[in-house]
Amino acid sequence: MYEKIGEKMIGWIIYNEQDANENKRYIEWFIDEAKKEAIDLQLKLRHELIIGTENGKQTILYQNKKMMKPDFVVIRTIEPFLQLYFERMNIPVFNNYETAKVCNDKATTYMEMNALQIPIVPTYFIHKAALPETMPLPFPFILKQTNGRGGREVFFIKNETDWDEAIAQCTNHALVIQSANVQLGRDVRVFIIGKEIIAAVLRKNDTDFRANFKLGGTAERFKLSKRNEEMIMKIVERFNFGLVGIDFLIGKNGELIFNEIEDVVGSRILSETTDINLLQKYVQFIKKHVEK
User: Fold this and answer.
1) How far is CA 175 from CA 165, 171, 234, 247, 251, in A?
2) Structural domains of the chain, with CATH
3) Which among 43, 139, 143, 162 has most CB atoms closer than 10 A?
């Protein structure tokens, strides 16, 4: 069974094995920043973690050994039940359950934004088992799976052939279709820690309708207007974020239009475009929150 060393704060960072391998340098950076704050941050691979209940108590096994609960958990997988499980043990979780549950379902996120009167493009929610005979939007439009992330499971539909091919590729039955009447290949990502806007970055891709950096796009620092900041803060005040990226499409007249919230957000584009140490700020935020 794991035991704490002195008074040092113990944290876990949970990854799927493939994502952990792809983000090795990011994880090492996270652990190094934690050490500077006297935090022992330990990587835990999801497939080696078993959670459940035994004799009326929540139980955590790691590599088949019972574990004492950590002081906090950073979850870098898309599995909101994990957040719920740890929160029920009164363990601070980053991001929390509500953030993970809402922001990893695009349809739910759009409903929340609509309630806040945050601008979104015309959007319809459909189900693969009950597809409409006539599309509610004209071609071209965007088709998304509600659980997609990182620009994956997103399709640009120009005609019926594109539609049939895209639907065949969708593995999730919950789908979203949206107007494509925006500046394609352009978006703005805003990095948030807690209630603070850290920075904004303009992402551009001249060869793809998606602006994602990992899909070959470029990035540069973006100056938010006061009006944009006020709109973003309406979203921020609605949630108790840890670290997220809020993505906005860019309208034909340059206006920002909400696109999605990345719960498991990276920091590569921020490191490429600024000298901001995002993980230093995030670790300090986590420590202050846990100590409180």
Assistant:
1) 14, 10, 26, 19, 23
2) 9-94 (3.40.50.20), 102-106+183-275 (3.30.470.20), 122-179 (3.30.1490.20)
3) 143
